Amino acid sequence: MKKKHYLTMIAVIMTTGLSMAQAQNPECMTNLSIYAEHAKVKNYDAAYEPWKMVYESCPDINKANFSYGEKILAHKIDNSTGADKDGYIQELLSLYDNSGKYFPKNYPTAVTEIDKALLLYDNKMASDDQLFEMLDKAFKEDRDNFKNPKALYLYFSALVNLHDSGKKDLQDVFDTYDDVTEKVEEENKKLTDVVTKLLPKDSANTITSKEKRMLRVASTNSESYGKVGASIDSKLGALADCDNLIPLYEKSYEEKKGDVTWVKRAVGRMFSKECTDDPMFRKLFEAQLALDPSADAYMYGGVLKQKSGDNKGAIADFNKAVELETDSYKKSNILYKIATIVRRSSKSQARSYALKAIDANAANGKAYLLIANLYAGSANDCGTTAFEKRAIYWKAADMARKAGRVDPSLSGHASQTAASYNAKAPTKEMIFSSGMAGKTITFSCWVGGSVTVPNL
């Protein structure tokens, strides 16, 4: 029995990275072995007392004190009430603080602050002030490790609530919105890079089991970021409409016109909210052009020229914007924005820019969705019969589905869009009565290409 117990302790030392020099406290080592064995089989009640002894007496003996300790205390919280539950919550908050103290490489600032904030939020123990303070600290001190989608939303949501109660300025809301959405885009880009790399292998059935898991994890996490991004936009809501933006920027312009970050964000927000008819948009655009004559600036210049009727000049500016941007991801976003601008005047030109956006970044799902929308909007222009006109929706639905595959953050919206287009395509009854099952329909309009009618 003693030999078996000794071997168990040695196993814990080896599997958790504990050095023999750290194993000088026999009582701590014995209890570490005991609670680790209980925790492995999720017998957290039995693990609690030996874990508590090791944690309080030898907190730095091994990081298992914190990894297992979190699971043990979470179990206790879930299975207790009243004062006992509050006590376990306080223990877990203290554990999060000490995890960063004793093992900072394993538990960076953002991770511990987020864990604390989410624990308080989930147990309805945190005010908006507390949530924002904790998450603001985490984001500003350790942005690289601030990756939790739920925490990103709560960070922004708490701030909007504070603004609604008169405690935060609208400019604070916009600044944090930009910071948070940029972070969401950064993290999602890492995930879609994995998806882009592995999708061809998955389609060709040459993907390994390890790569399959990587693809599944990346797709799931990307989808989570997509949902959070949509929730953040929804939370911002009407605060970012033109009626709020214009007076805010008019008020701050003289003070901020030399701040390139403020100017770029302001003109970008007015563009995204379609406030481009207001003179303030031109003022901000000219300020950006003077401070940073970058690709974005030429794109906005193209918008103004287009509005004044100078379509030739607008296209020249758009092409200049594309030429100036060297980063393929940013180039793709610019091409997509140009596609959204020119769609009103030319669907085929809009598709051309959208396809260039996809060439620059194969994971640009928004470009696929735009093309799907362009196709759907051309139903009455493509085909001579009602059946042929409605068949264009199959092509639109296919494009929408591609959007969700290349960028899983858009999968929810893409699936809904594809379903709505499929509902407008010919029904089974129409296919049967027309005798078109399995046949090919070619489109002679600007859309071009063809679709194969589904077999019944």
UniProtKB/TrEMBL annotation:
Residues 1-21 form the signal peptide. Keywords: Signal, TPR repeat. The keyword Signal applies. InterPro entries: TPR-like_helical_dom_sf, TPR_rpt. TPR repeats lie at residues 295-328. This is Uncharacterized protein. It comes from Flagellimonas olearia.
